[in-house]
User: Fold UDP-N-acetylmuramoyl-L-alanyl-D-glutamate--2,6-diaminopimelate ligase from Halpernia frigidisoli.
Amino acid sequence: MKLKELLNRIPTLEIHGEINREVSEIVFDSRKAFKASLYVAVKGTISDGHDFINSAIEKGSSVIVCENFPNDFKENCTYIKVENASKTLGKLAANFYGNPSEKLKLIGVTGTNGKTSVCTLLFDVFKILGYSSALISTVEYRIGDEIIPSTHTTPDVLTINKILAKALEIGCEYAFTEVSSHGIHQDRIEGLHFKIAGFTNITHDHLDYHHTFLEYLNTKKRFFDELPSSAVAITNVDDKNGNVMLQNTLAKKKSYAMKTMADFHGKLLEADFNGMLMNFNNKEVWTTITGKFNVYNLLLVFGIASECGFEESEILTAISQLKRVKGRFETIKSPSGIFFIVDYAHTPDALENILDSINEIRTKNERLICVFGCGGDRDKTKRPEMGAVAASKSTLAIITSDNPRSENPQEIIKEIEAGVKPENYNKFLSIPDRKDAIKSAIKFAEPKDIILVAGKGHENYQEINGVKHHFDDKEIIAELLNIMGK
Ligand SMILES: CC(=O)N[C@H]1[C@@H](OP(=O)(O)OP(=O)(O)OC[C@H]2O[C@@H](n3ccc(=O)[nH]c3=O)[C@H](O)[C@@H]2O)O[C@H](CO)[C@@H](O)[C@@H]1O[C@H](C)C(=O)N[C@@H](C)C(=O)N[C@H](CCC(=O)O)C(=O)O
Ligand SMILES: Nc1ncnc2c1ncn2[C@@H]1O[C@H](COP(=O)(O)OP(=O)(O)OP(=O)(O)O)[C@@H](O)[C@H]1O
Ligand SMILES: N[C@H](CCC[C@H](N)C(=O)O)C(=O)O
Ligand SMILES: [Mg+2]
Assistant:
């Protein structure tokens, strides 16, 4: 594409060099630069892309977009000064890929918990309704039937545009994307045109990155603040901050709730481990998805599909055909009758919700064993809160490792243990090796007991000191059951 065309509608401060030249690709990592590429120098959390301008040129970049010009200009290169390189990257990406987000219906979902669930369920509902879509999620990216491994919940803006452009090319009409707080903060959604934006809930997470809860909340709110008046914003008004999210949005406001009046109102009539009977806007629907928090997720799916123009009855028929999302409340029953639940709960709120949901369903004649840990190099303040919740809401909590990353697993466990309330000191034990922890839970369990293995859900690895070792909770459970004959 010609640089002149690429710069269409993009504000610049100063240009040095020829703008009548061909751009082969846009890159924001000098290591990925090649012949005739345009390199955008972005300030990151560790380094500053401006330091790599010359390495990008050595690898073939001939256009540099930056906030400060270097001291000397290389021959045959064009330098473009902009106010904010990270935001400019979003606009360049949209122009380069032909503004795909304006051409298909882009739907974004933000919130602490439930984004993957809602986006995946939307993708599945729309498929049942006969529409092909794109999905951008923590678990995987999908373009119609094609599956691409996921690197980020919300990837960089070039990747998003590339996925959307490909989706458009193969005839998709919708795209569902998770919008993470890191994604908003790092301008990974800059230049995208959202038709509908959904909010699930906001509780404690990522305070390592955002520092305070208010900063975290305001980052999520920015997603709604920046929507145009042509968009629709759907919020959970049972959440304390559900209305705050939409306070300054220009978008048309819609709500969903179970406890208060809302445009999309839901009730949970019955729930067991096989599914739930719900009532949505006075119509009953049965689903194999279970857990009270999933009523909220399904209500948001219902609200979004309604705003896309589908009839309530056809949406509910599609909801009744949904399957569970990978690693979310997935159940396994052993030959001897031990019941396992594998779930991605990795925040205090998620762990509390899943334990509450299990406790509401179970008879209490069995025991509930909770095996969980906390990720290293992530929000440390979650740890004692998760320790407190797990020990108080289960018969036995087995504290173990999640992804320790660069941290010492024993130290993470100590921080989790510190949150256990004195009255629950006899209700927990700590086993650092995750496989050993699951093994102990199985040893301890009798038929009908429930073992919740939380925190890693769909993940098929355990990251220790920068190395990802293959580890899949479901596989480990099957392997141990086989060896232990239970
Ligand atoms: C903390 C964080 O989010 N970091 C993200 C960020 O990297 P960074 O700011 O550290 O980049 P940097 O190393 O400082 O480099 C700055 C710039 O210089 C460039 N550079 C760097 C070195 C070089 O030799 N040449 C060069 O050009 C880099 O490409 C970059 O553009 O920008 C990168 C490019 O987009 C991301 O890949 C990276 O995600 C890291 C890997 C990550 O782990 N992020 C997680 C925390 C994350 O984003 N998670 C959320 C989900 C959270 C949730 O569960 O809700 C997600 O959306 O996935
Ligand atoms: N609406 C909800 N409210 C509270 N907890 C939920 C909700 N939906 C899911 N959960 C819990 O949170 C866990 C993670 O769910 P999900 O993967 O859908 O969230 P996410 O927002 O995509 O998370 P991430 O930020 O890691 O991408 C689930 O396994 C479940 O335990
Ligand atoms: N997207 C989340 C996932 C956490 C999953 C948990 N297994 C962990 O590693 O902490 C994060 O990166 O914080
Ligand atoms: Mg997710």
